[in-house]
Amino acid sequence: MNVAGGVARVSAGGPSTTTAAHVLALTLVAYGVDTVFGIPGTHNLAIYQALAEAGVRCVTTRHEQGAGYAADGYARATGRPGVVLTTTGPAVLNAAAALAQAYSDSSPVLLISPGVPLTHPRLGCGYLHESKDQSRALDSLCAWSHRVTSPEEIPAALSRAFASFTEGRPRPIHLEIPVDLLDLPTSVPPATPFQVPPRAPDPAAIASAATLLGTALRPAIVLGGGVHHSHADHSHADHSHVHHSRAGTLALAERTGAPIVTTANGKAAVPESHAHHSRTGTLALILAERTGAPIVTTANGKAAVPESHPLALGATLHLPAVQTWLATCDVVLAIGTELAPSDFWIDDFRLTGQLIRIDVDPAQMQGDLPAMIPIVADAYLALDALLTHPAIPQKPEHVPREPLDAGPLAERRDSVVRAGWDAQSLVGRSDSVLWARRDAELEALAARWGSQLKAVRDVLPADTIVTADSSMFCYYGALGGLPIDPPGRFLYPTGFGTLGFALPAAIGAKIAYPERPVAVLAGDGAFQFSVQELATAVELGLPLPIVISVNGGYGEIRAEMVARGMLPVAVDLHNPDFVGLAVAYGAGGVAVDTPEELGEAVGKALHASGPTVIVLREA
């Protein structure tokens, strides 16, 4: 075995003795896991040994929370589960914040950890890294946590975990294996992977929804993160079945006009000429064009459809102008979203029209905004069924691959005007009242960073994955003010709203797609929650532009203190020399003052031999 760049590797080959740890590793490999994020510790050495012998890449972060965010970034970018490996006790708790964020954002993250021995007294005896009930603590943050009690249980527990990631809403899972089981010899074989078929929609619900959409005067579509998670765009287990259905997949694409995107393991399942962007997002866009419904996305739904499209409002659900418009729409189709207070930034948003929900999670049908027509199904299958229903206007002769121009819009003028928008106004968008109000509110909200974000956008390639932190620079600025079209992505911690997400998430995304550009956006406060992961990025040689917007502390909390009439307390921070700190880690570092300098620095950083910290001093 050799260790280089934070990665342990050995050539794949069976161990002389099969232990519970080997069964664990081999089952992970069977499910397509090739990368694990974590930190070795006294109690997980048997697992690390087994992973190395199975040829799994082990990426060492500098903190277990960083490992959790890296696995989350990997999972969001690929749609495949991100795997974290920690030791017992404090290491598990260090990863807890990342798991809670993954739960909030429906990200498939698997945390594997040892636990106290099976023979350990329940009341405790001071065992190393002992806690009262590690599994129960994690169960309160994850979809579920399970403590196995025998080597034979490990394959079954892992199979259950991977099935959970695909059978419904993907959320993090914790698997605990008592440390005294890991080295036990066993004859149990690794699990045989299986696919859980996606949920098909109820035809009666589809018919009702199609009729409602087909007769709507002011329809709207809201896309959430579930559009990125659709089964059609990602498969977590064995992908060989995809290649066997090549003809059917192409026929479906030709019938619906939908481009095809494949995962890494599905590459060559169809000719590369057919591989484009997210099929689910594309179907949503086709439905919008047929019905004349503008599309708005949540933060997690950002980049599911091109934000440059004339019907796209971008990730602006938090803007008053967009909320006012949405509240007056007569039919709203919400796909893969909670429609939560954290999406609207207010607690009491209400619709006056009729709500259709498409979601794999039945619990969403009776949430804060109950569905009049609930469709519990995979988003792609539901959209495909809607588009083939006769109540939906027939698709145009040609489905454009680029943003619509005046010609195609004019051809569908009736449906567009029926939705309340003039076709020619939609082309320019600035002449549309809704888009003009949206643009004015965005400009006011992001005024501090508008020219800087434009400079960043101008130099980022179209397929860039942007990771953003819970910082003013990101939620007031980049969320609505940094337009992204597929195949670009925007990874952001919503809901739970943790700090320190962006840098380690970028590491995970870049490891998943080394050929794609990845860029980091964060504030100075958030960056320091995970600044130590600079060492990880340097060690791995990842060319990450890391733009740090410096406002001298916790700017949002400072503003809230001022708004409530109090003097700011405990929010002004003594910052390090970020450029000097980057250099000390072995990274590049540069301070910029103008948008031109920022764009130039980001462009250079994309082609550097490692990460570059770019310090943007706010005015």
Commentary on this structure:
- An 8-stranded mixed β-sheet has the order 1-2-4-3-5-6-8-7, sandwiched between helices.
- Helix 8 (203-215) packs across helix 14 (379-387), helix 11 (279-291) packs parallel to helix 14 (379-387) and helix 12 packs antiparallel against helix 18 (433-445).
- It contains 26 helices and 20 strands.
- It has 619 residues and is of the alpha/beta class.
- Residues 1-15, 235-276 and 396-431 have low confidence and may be disordered.
- It is globular.
- What can be said about the biggest beta sheet? 8 strands, mixed
Unreliable residue stretches = 1-15, 235-276, 396-431
Which percent bin holds the helix content? 25-40%
Through-space gap between termini: 51 Å
Overall pLDDT metric: 86
Which descriptors apply to this entry?
15% strand, disordered N terminus, eight-stranded mixed β-sheet, 26 helices, globular, 619 residues, alpha/beta, 20 strands
Helix and strand topology:
Blueprint: E1 2-4, E2 7-9, H1 20-30, E3 35-38, H2 45-53, E4 57-60, H3 64-78, E5 82-85, H4 90-94, H5 96-104, E6 109-115, H6 134-139, E7 144-147, H7 153-167, E8 173-178, H8 203-215, E9 219-223, H9 240-244, H10 246-256, H11 279-291, E10 295-297, E11 312-314, H12 320-328, E12 331-335, H13 341-344, E13 354-359, E14 373-376, H14 379-387, H15 406-411, H16 413-418, H17 423-428, H18 433-445, H19 450-459, E15 465-468, H20 472-481, E16 489-491, H21 502-512, E17 518-523, H22 524-527, H23 533-540, E18 545-550, H24 555-563, H25 578-585, E19 588-592, H26 595-605, E20 612-617
Helix pairs in contact: 1-2, 1-7, 3-5, 3-21, 8-14, 11-14, 12-18, 19-26
